[in-house]
Amino acid sequence: MAVIVSDTTPLHYLILVEAVDVLPRLYGRVLIPPAVREELNQPNTPQAVRAWLNESPAWLVVAGPTRAPGPGLSHLDAGEIQAISLALENRADLLL
Fold first, then answer.
1. Longest Cα pair distance anywhere in the chain, in angstroms?
2. Which one in 9, 11, 14, 74 has a CA-CA gap of 20 to 30 Å to 45?
3. At CA 77, angle to CA 72 and CA 83, rounded to 5?
């Protein structure tokens, strides 16, 4: 099975346009790091996104990277850093 990691933006907008169900059909499961989960659950995030996250499906797996990110990622936000690190650690086939 392919390893897929997602950053915040793809999930956010797929939820808003009611197309997030395409992800499990295409990929089976999708990994997100804790920082992405936190970004999707911010008070200023649309209620539809927060509601979906609070009842997130089994195919969405929260997994944190185990290694410190490289210094070349320091200009990115926490979700991007963790998503890239998680993708590298898991030799992901795709980073959304």
1. 36
2. 74
3. 80
Select from 42, 41, 92 the least CA-distant residue to 65: 92
Using alpha carbons, select from 35, 84, 42 the residue that is nearest to residue 62.
35
Antiparallel, parallel or unpaired: β 94-95 and 30-32: unpaired
Pick from 22, 31, 7: nearest CA to 91: 31
Measured distance CA(87)–CA(10) in Å, rounded: 15
Rounded to an integer, what distance in angstroms lies between the CA atom of residue 9 and that of residue 15?
Answer: 10
From CA 48, how far away is CA 32, in angstroms rounded? 18
Per-residue pLDDT tens digits of the chain, which is 96 residues long: 788 999 999 999 999 999 999 999 999 999 999 999 999 999 999 999 999 999 999 999 999 888 777 777 778 878 898 999 999 999 999 999
Instruction: Please say whether the dihedral angle defined by the alpha carbons of residues 82, 51, 57 and 4, taken in this order, is positive or negative.
Output: negative
